[in-house]
Amino acid sequence: MVIAISIQITLWIWFWGCTTTYRAGKYLLVEGMGIKSAEFVMLCLYSIGLVSYHFFQPVGKWILLVILLLWFIVQFLCHWYYTIFGASDKKIKGYNECFRDTIRIFPMSEKRLVPDLYHIILHILILANIVCCLI
User: Fold this and answer.
1) Count of structural domains within the chain
2) What does residue 24 show for φ and ψ, rounded to 5 degrees?
3) Range of 121's domain?
4) Digit-coded pLDDT (tens) for 52-94
5) Global confidence as pTM
């Protein structure tokens, strides 16, 4: 239970960066989109899922799991689908422009969409939360 709560809190704090902006000195981890964004709506849904999980068991577990699965599917379709199956030049150019200043483990490519560090960690945290919900 302690591990699940730790992962849930870590994901919430990590994803808050999509609403605000996280920087490490001159390096940009993620640029926040503000409270009038789809990212903030997803943060609110995740928060509702967390409250449900902790206060309305056993139904809350399923509410959180559905929210996490929806979130993962959206993230997969926005990032990993194009990494795995390829994307148009226009899509790659737009993605690279949007995330041009973010910290990267793997360099950008003009041939393939490559997620930045923030999104790689975000997706790992979402999956870790899904696993915690299932066990």
Assistant:
1) 1
2) -120, 90
3) 2-134
4) 999 998 999 999 999 999 999 999 998 899 999 989 999 999 9
5) 0.90
